[in-house]
Amino acid sequence: MAATRTGLEQFIAHVPPEVRNHRAGLLTNPSGVDRHFQSSVDLLARHPDIELVALFGPEHGIRGEAQAGDHVSTGTDPATGLPVHSLYGETRVPDAGMLRDLDSFIIDIQDIGVRYATYLSSIDNVMTACAEHGVQVVILDRPNPLGGVTVAGGILNGAFRSFVGTHDIPVLHGLTMGEFARLLAHDRSLPEPVIVPMQGWQRQMLYDETGLPWVFPSPNLPTLDSHLLYGATCLIEGTNLSEGRGTTRPFEMIGAPWLEPDAIVASLQAWDLPGFAYRPVYFTPMFSKNAGTRCGGVQIYVTDRQAASTIELGVRLLQSVIALGHDQFEWVQFTEGGARHFVDLLAGGDQLRTTLSTGNDPAPLLGQWQDDAATFNQRRQQFLLYDSTI
Q: In this structure, which topology does domain 224-375 adopt according to CATH?
C-alpha cells in the first residue's frame, strides 16, 4: 500500500490557485512536517507561490515546548525571523492586528482525534475570526490518528462548551481536521475553508498504517497507544488522580497515593471489557498532579484495537476508582469562566458525574451515548472527504 500524502505535501507540490501569491499566516506546531521531517514553516517560508508573513502557535506552542495549560508567549521565530502570535496566552482568538496583513490563514497541525483536544478549539477561533475580517482559511489535511470509522461517546451539550469542547460532536468524532472544518463552517454559517486533501488515506487506517513518520502532536501524547487510550483516561483529569503526566507513559498509567494497584486491576478485570489488559504499577510523577509522590495505579494496554471500547473503559475506570477511593476520591473544579467540574467539560455534560456520584449504573447513559453517536455518524456523512477504500 502506498504511503499517505498529507495536505502539506499536496500543497507544496501545487498551491491552490485561489490562494496563490497570498500573504499568509500559518498555525502549526512540531507535527507540521513532511515525510522528510521538513517543517511546514520552512517549506512555506521558501515557497515561491506563497508569502509567509506570520506564525501562530496553539497550546504547547510552535515548537511544542510548553506543557498542558501553560500560557505560550508571543515573540519572534529565530529560524525565520517571522512574528509568532500565541493563540494560547493572553488571547486565544486572532485579533484584527494579527490578521490585518493576511490574505490567507493556513492551518497545518496534527489533530488527536478526540474532542477534548484544544486544537479543534483553535480552528474554531481562527475560522470565526477570519470570517469577521475577510481572511481565507486553508486547511492542510492530515490523518485522524484513530482512523475515520469509529464514532463514539456523548454529544457535547452546548451549555458545557469550553476550550476542551468547542462544538457539538462526540468524544471520538472520526473526522479529519479538514472534515471537522467543513462541518463547523456549515453549522456556524462560516465561509467554506479551502481544504487541501490527503492522497491515499483510507478511513479505516490508524496512523501507523499510513506510512507517514510519527511526530507526536502533544508533549503528553507521545505514542499511538496513548492516543488510543486518551478518550478514556483523559477523564481522570477531572479527578484528583494522576493521569500519568510527569511519567514516561502519560494517559497509559493512572493512579493516586491512596490507590492500591492490585485492587484497581481486579476491579477493571471484573468488567471484562474486550480489547484491554491491565498491569498493577507504582509510579512517581515528576510534575503535574501528585508530583514527587508515590502513586499506586494501573497501566492499561490495548490488546485488540477493533474490539476495544474506549468510551466504556473511561466510564468503568471512573466507576472503579470512585468505589476504591471512598472519601479520598475527589472531582476537581475548573475555575476558568466560572467554577465548574472539569469532568463535566470533558464529558460534555454533567450526567456522567451525577450518575457515578450517586452510585447509579451508567449502562443506560452509555446506551444513550451510543444512540447519539449513531445519529451523528449519519449527520457527518455529507462532510466526509475520504472513502473507506481507494
A: Aspartate Aminotransferase, domain 1 (3.90.1150)
